[in-house]
Amino acid sequence: MADDSTGRSPAGERVWQAACELFSRDGIRSVGVAEIAATSGVGKPSLYRNFGSKDELAVAYVKAQAVAGLESFEVARQACPGDELAQLRHVIARVAGEMGTPGYRGCVIANTAIEFSDREHPVRQAVDELKAEYLRRLTTLVARLPVRDPEALAYTLQILMEGAGAAAQFYSVERSRATLVEAADRIIASYLRQ
Amino acid sequence: MADDSTGRSPAGERVWQAACELFSRDGIRSVGVAEIAATSGVGKPSLYRNFGSKDELAVAYVKAQAVAGLESFEVARQACPGDELAQLRHVIARVAGEMGTPGYRGCVIANTAIEFSDREHPVRQAVDELKAEYLRRLTTLVARLPVRDPEALAYTLQILMEGAGAAAQFYSVERSRATLVEAADRIIASYLRQ
DNA sequence: TCGCTTGCGTACCGATCGGTACGCCTGTCT
DNA sequence: AGACAGGCGTACCGATCGGTACGCAAGCGA
């Protein structure tokens, strides 16, 4: 779960682990700092010494989740060097695969954007930046393919992934996963030059 | 904003209007009952006399939003009788058009599902039922088209609409709207017989 | 052994949450 | 006029929120 253990005390590390677990399961706003402290078995002040506030902890969590997602581009590049189409499929498959994890609750970043509707809120601003970065990487990858309108295709794929993650929550995980890869293939095919 | 004014006192009606406005703008959990009462200019007890609790008020709000969405199927049927493809495009265009409303914050029902991650919560259960109903209607409509796999197509379109609504929040409203109709057309075309 | 720093938990803070006890005020029927 | 019923707001409730003051205990060099 993306542990960038940068100068964290033992108690701080336990807080971090508990926070990631609880945030992933219930969202951010549903989890109180007292619950995080109790779950991790440390006192609240240890939370505030290692992270300045609940908001900062939330930002760290969201960023950690995001880098895990962004890494998939690098992983795909190394898995299928030179074959950009295979890389794109790899990235999409990663999103589809993630839906299989027990208690899957959709894209953490997208969910956090909804939990923090105020665009001036620091957590929301982090979310918006991270979402933009993901789309940028996806567009860069798609632009390497022989397609007519790479930006449109990238945006369409982004929407598909977003929607599949959301649908997995109130519809079927399995159908969402299957539909995502199937639809992505159809869309990609419709954009590929011949 | 879908006023099913069933036996609501004047004060209750003001509460209802204020609640719809605030819930739409900030989400449900971000809005306290005190804020609703203050905005509507009535006391809190009037809220609790007309609606039993904040949860019941939230359920009423979510249902009202949902029926507004479900009505679009009927509207489409009357606008283009006999032409199911045009009806489908009509329904999709309605979702796309809704994104243009100022302060658009994505699909209310989907957002509420994220705000209430506990599937046993009454608000969440209402959300899940309403989402299922929407997909059912969409599937019924798609099944009238000469397509190979109507259920798959309906689910794909659902995911597209879901994703476009989400993307409109942290990306561009205009791109999300344009991409939704464009992608839907491509997907539909790829499923149509010949 | 002393004094000091460091890391930590207990117990508390004010603010806000959803929800309610209670009384006022008005219109109506007698 | 007087008794009554309904719709309403003030002022409060306990619980929980994020955040903090403070003191204890362990490890260190002298």
From TrEMBL, chains A, B:
Residues 9-69 form the HTH tetR-type domain. The keyword Transcription applies. This is AcrR family transcriptional regulator. Gene3D superfamilies: Tetracycline Repressor, domain 2 (1.10.357.10). Keywords: DNA-binding, Transcription, Transcription regulation. One of its GO terms (molecular function) is DNA binding. Pfam families: TetR_C_13 (PF16925), TetR_N (PF00440). InterPro entries: Homeodomain-like_sf (IPR009057), HTH_TetR (IPR001647), Tet_transcr_reg_TetR-rel_C_sf (IPR036271), TetR_C (IPR011075). It comes from the Bacteria. Residues 32-51 bind DNA.
